[in-house]
Amino acid sequence: MIERYTRREMARIWDDEARLGKMLEVEATFLEAIARLKGVPKAEIKALRSLVGAGALAGKVKEKEATSGHDVVALLQVVSEALEGKAPTVVQYLHYGLTSSDVLDTALALQLREAADLLIAGWKKLADSLAALAARHAGTWMVGRTHGVHAEPLPFGLKLASWHAEARRNLERLESAREKISFGKLSGAVGSYAHFPPSLEASVLKRLGLKPEPVATQVVPRDRHAEFFQALALSACAIERFATEVRHLQRTEVLELEEPFGKGQKGSSAMPHKRNPILCENLCGLARMVRGYAMAALEDVALWHERDISHSSVERIALPDATILLDFMLHRFTGVVEGLNVYAEQMRRNLDRSLGLVFSQKVLLTLIDKGLPRMKAYDVVQRAAMETWRVRKPFRDNLWLDDEVRRRLSEKELGKCFDLEAYGRSTREVLKREGIL
Amino acid sequence: MIERYTRREMARIWDDEARLGKMLEVEATFLEAIARLKGVPKAEIKALRSLVGAGALAGKVKEKEATSGHDVVALLQVVSEALEGKAPTVVQYLHYGLTSSDVLDTALALQLREAADLLIAGWKKLADSLAALAARHAGTWMVGRTHGVHAEPLPFGLKLASWHAEARRNLERLESAREKISFGKLSGAVGSYAHFPPSLEASVLKRLGLKPEPVATQVVPRDRHAEFFQALALSACAIERFATEVRHLQRTEVLELEEPFGKGQKGSSAMPHKRNPILCENLCGLARMVRGYAMAALEDVALWHERDISHSSVERIALPDATILLDFMLHRFTGVVEGLNVYAEQMRRNLDRSLGLVFSQKVLLTLIDKGLPRMKAYDVVQRAAMETWRVRKPFRDNLWLDDEVRRRLSEKELGKCFDLEAYGRSTREVLKREGIL
Amino acid sequence: MIERYTRREMARIWDDEARLGKMLEVEATFLEAIARLKGVPKAEIKALRSLVGAGALAGKVKEKEATSGHDVVALLQVVSEALEGKAPTVVQYLHYGLTSSDVLDTALALQLREAADLLIAGWKKLADSLAALAARHAGTWMVGRTHGVHAEPLPFGLKLASWHAEARRNLERLESAREKISFGKLSGAVGSYAHFPPSLEASVLKRLGLKPEPVATQVVPRDRHAEFFQALALSACAIERFATEVRHLQRTEVLELEEPFGKGQKGSSAMPHKRNPILCENLCGLARMVRGYAMAALEDVALWHERDISHSSVERIALPDATILLDFMLHRFTGVVEGLNVYAEQMRRNLDRSLGLVFSQKVLLTLIDKGLPRMKAYDVVQRAAMETWRVRKPFRDNLWLDDEVRRRLSEKELGKCFDLEAYGRSTREVLKREGIL
Amino acid sequence: MIERYTRREMARIWDDEARLGKMLEVEATFLEAIARLKGVPKAEIKALRSLVGAGALAGKVKEKEATSGHDVVALLQVVSEALEGKAPTVVQYLHYGLTSSDVLDTALALQLREAADLLIAGWKKLADSLAALAARHAGTWMVGRTHGVHAEPLPFGLKLASWHAEARRNLERLESAREKISFGKLSGAVGSYAHFPPSLEASVLKRLGLKPEPVATQVVPRDRHAEFFQALALSACAIERFATEVRHLQRTEVLELEEPFGKGQKGSSAMPHKRNPILCENLCGLARMVRGYAMAALEDVALWHERDISHSSVERIALPDATILLDFMLHRFTGVVEGLNVYAEQMRRNLDRSLGLVFSQKVLLTLIDKGLPRMKAYDVVQRAAMETWRVRKPFRDNLWLDDEVRRRLSEKELGKCFDLEAYGRSTREVLKREGIL
Questions:
Q1: Using CB atoms, which residue from D293, D300, D312 is nearest to A282?
Q2: Does A253 sit within 8 Å of C360, measured CB to CB?
Q3: Which of B270, B292, B313 is the closest to C286 by Cβ?
Q4: Low-confidence ranges of chain C (pLDDT < 70)
Q5: How far does CA C234 lie from the centroid of its chain?
Q6: Are C61 and C71 in contact (CB under 8 A)?
Q7: Contacts of A among chains (3+ CB pairs under 8 A)
């Protein structure tokens, strides 16, 4: 992933040193578990552990890999050389009875869990920001829009609450995906436990905080990883939905919101007057990327026989890239929410712009309550509405010209249909239910 | 979806009549809830309910829709005309305060739940077939393959158990997706509950067995549906994995399995000798389709403002098509499993074909146990293995030519490395853990 | 594909009868080519041809297929039975030396060519409509928008011309894809020409207007079909771009365009005042579907060995569905263009809404021409622009308050920067270059 | 993209310095074109050009961008500061009347052209390797397989020739995509040529070897880039097809091919006997990635209005990543072809393994020629074939037990059906037609 979209917190989970460190953690924990059986002294395992975090593995492994073409073999060589003499029993029993995937997939689970934790924290922070903003705007009126067209009045806080609810759903998805991915596998080649029993695997994985794959092939089955990617994609789609909304509400004619615009920032190299929602546009593009990665992950499920290695190149690229991008997206959008300029007056101005048409349903229902058949009432209201578009006069006045309306309603009754506050009657209840108020 | 891949059981969930029936179910249940308030007699609601299942709605609605361009409006017109005179209060209060999406999305939830139930039943049946076959072949030896290359011995039942475990995971996913999709929404235009309170929605949805969307826009948020599609895609990928395996094991050189081949069936119009795994190939193609649908569903999440209707065309096509295909896939693959020809002797023959190389790791570990350093031991074994490929003589013999081996092992000790049964030591335990034995 | 999105013209290319007819056309043409060699009388071949178009094949073939599980074999059986006695030599030599794919893929090429022709005609019609509308609005001013924010003045005709140019590119793509797909294949099993020479294939395909696949496997290679799908997807994306624009310009605050709204049409079941861009929203959804199909087609390329049949289920579904949808999209969007309501006055009103800011670049360039360094000039103009947003006073007035501006420009020179017509200087030239004027 | 899959040749086209260099090339060429009009001395433009390639731009631009949030503005600032005093007229007129996209999209076209050239060279090299190998194996017999099952004899060279043909098609696609992407755009904000005429654009682009976009918005329309991505995806799918074939042919039971296996290479950390087709498996995974990128690119087409910037993040990531991966794939697969181990004897052994069944069609056709009706003949041959599977005796012997066969054929005539060379009659002609011989 390119630096521009990378936060250090996520990147360091995926760097070579971290990956090799996790692999050694698995090897060391395994050695601990067979230590008594094979007579591996604790001090030697400590020597092995001391290689982790020293920052010197990646370079050496890469060198060895040039010959063997196999990264696990290369790591074993590097470790063996480093511990030669110092920890002979470790050198002897390192990786004993394991196959590469035992180490790789178990280490990957550790990495994925960390990545999931970071994303979960990201969503929590964003959800909190959304809740705060929603609470603040529980009574800020704007127009609700469907099909891009004015529909009925809407408290801005309710719109934000729907984002909060979607954030919560994505939190749950990531938490669930975290569980689904927290499975390791130490059952040897082709997953047959030919060289040690399931109990040994169970004991090692327990120390690592992972669960054993119920029936592995040689690898942890890739539907787990594909499911993880689906959670990433759904998260990205959520951000895309929110960002799209900000873009819409920042358009010149609407201008109810503006994403933060830095001091000294230039909107355009040519047009000095521009303030563009580029942060949110950028987020929409990134969502496309994450969807693409998720697609590739689905194709990884159908590995051949007890495994082939076609998933590996996908995961080397897409797992870091997708988690790095989503982490960036969460962080960036949280920034947008926290710095969001909300133009409440303009919201109100836009709401008034449709000349009262947004109250049409209330008129319809009132006429029905007064005994006018629905189809008839609909026609009456639609006619007055279309006339309002045409002549640009208040909807209420157009209605009052209609005999059918006058026959059913007093002027006061008609007026009551245009009471904005009635539309907010349930807002606080919904926000409470959502845990925002 | 085309007839060829359609089972009636799923198709009827999605036909127009069923859809309109579900919509009327929602309208009727809503009327029941406001019956006391608005004075709607029970008998009238019964009259409304009697329109469902009569099989005459779809044609009439389509006719009306030609004018109004709006399917819910058309349905209301048809119902109003049908009940005119007979149930005047229903005609009066039908759809009172509702917006189309209240009805459409709630009805869709009912359809999706039925579709999910059918798919869950399909997976259960398939899982049972897999369990039975796995149990039967707990002791059937074959070679485990990684990268398409012989790896180590594997009980065929263990391979099947890994399918069973993946089936279980997909069952869970569909059960979870069923919950995620069992949300209705009766909060009116833009989701503001402007014309009736959340308590009314709660009461209607409870009768329908659905939960209320915590914070809706005008629609149930589309991340729920996208998540449902992800579950479908993961299910399809699982079938693809299994079907790919059958295809591999049916290739002429391997021929350990054959999918059922009907009496009178022709494998090729040109080559009378052919028996091809066409059922499984077909399933692989269908998995590609389901993935494609899932992709489209992800793009539906970011609807504009309180809703736009771009998701509708996707759902009209992809929801029936994807569920119909997956239902077909589950059913077809269950048939493949149940009619599968298992050639156990050929499995054994193939296992023997690699001249004992599949026991190489056991030799390696034994040499290590005897004190030979791992790297050294690896070289000894690899050398003998490569020689085996070259001269096509038993691996064991080649090993016995090696001084290093002779120095460490007796002939009997070497022989013990080639004990097949040792590789099956944990099979029954794993199958029990998986609930198969 | 569902009826709602299906035009008869495209559907009939793909129905079973048409497909079987094309297959018989291939078989008959092949028989003609070997007629002299094998002594097949012309009258008999005529009898074979007379089976096509009688509308009775599909049902019978389906019946036979239930036993043989092979559609080509079933067709051969039906034909043999129909011609038994009447055309014995045809029955004898029918399909002689051919493999199913020879017939299927060659027939498919004929279908694809027809489908492509229909789509090409659809794009031409749409391009013509766009050209006519663009010409009509060469002088209609609106604001050009980037990032959804007002940028600079733009003739509406120029926007439409960019659609026309994209239409032309897609026309080219489909014409190119039509060529790429117009390849047949009659080289027998595994494509080896074992039973007849390339010259025979050449002669048959020439009669059918197709080219021979240079090196086939048993099938025409699927990259051709995948490429065809890519052209469909790009076409769909173009319609999505145009439809998205209409949706934007129909939003209440902008309202510069409205898609046709039928007499008697209802915008909403709840809100009688609504006129929503549902046709265009629907098109955006359909574009997602076509992209999904294209994805599946890419996965069909890597067939195994000389062929497997996994592509078949994808093509049975996605080729009809994708071409039917695109055909529908082209037709529907042409209707939108032809019935488009263009509100030129509102365009002008919106253009004026940004208080002259859209001329900011012209002011910048004029200041540069007057010797003010660019960075300096940019700051001057940006400052006045931001002030304009803030105080909602004409940009020009804000500029005229700036000493730097006054030092460099006379009031008349500043005024010249706000000359709208200068922005249209090149419009006619561009439209002519594009073939519109 | 990660280093592991990156060749320097492609990476350097995309690095920041190269990108900024191309942008300055556009700015400088533009200045040359207006030099006479605006009085910009040649020496000054030379000073501007001298900034390119000095390797110092990227760092400085990044620093400036931190404030302005706009990379083009940042570049202009860096250049202005560097040339201050030295080239005052350049500083004055730099970027005069241009909008960022004029520079960015035109520079991007230059980068894309270079990337395309490298990929074209890669395909040419691979095509040459394939041609050489195909020519060498024009007479090497193997079995052709359909559905993974033995079909008819096939010269290995013919299989390779089909790869060559697909390589040629992809070459054409990339050459075509190169043309489609070689369009620049210098028409200013919203593409209206408001500040200079099309003739100026034409003159600048001509110097850069690009064509002018017929009707641009503010940007070069993104269907061009999406089309480029489709060509990349199709190329990747081709490599996937070839690599999949190698994987199949390297499986233990088949072992007709092996990809190069380095001296010192380890196939497995656990099983010393393994030689796995990991290079080809890896290529299959990478193809999934490229498909995912292509999907994202399709979503970039529908930008809003005269542009939004959502495509930018996609392109910053996916254009380098997809071209780098494809470049790597081409290079790696060329290595596989050049180092491919071809086991011709094993091919022959496998061909013989189906006991003569691969000649079944020839027997069928001969019986037809002898007057046996096709359906009848098919049954005779199928019966003998199924018996051959069952009893594992030569197909020919089973046929000779059949009365119907004996009635029609002499033993010699039957024998002629089993003549391998007859299957290769057209091979040289096809290879010549393909330009291989």
A1: D312
A2: no
A3: B313
A4: none
A5: 6
A6: yes
A7: B, C, D
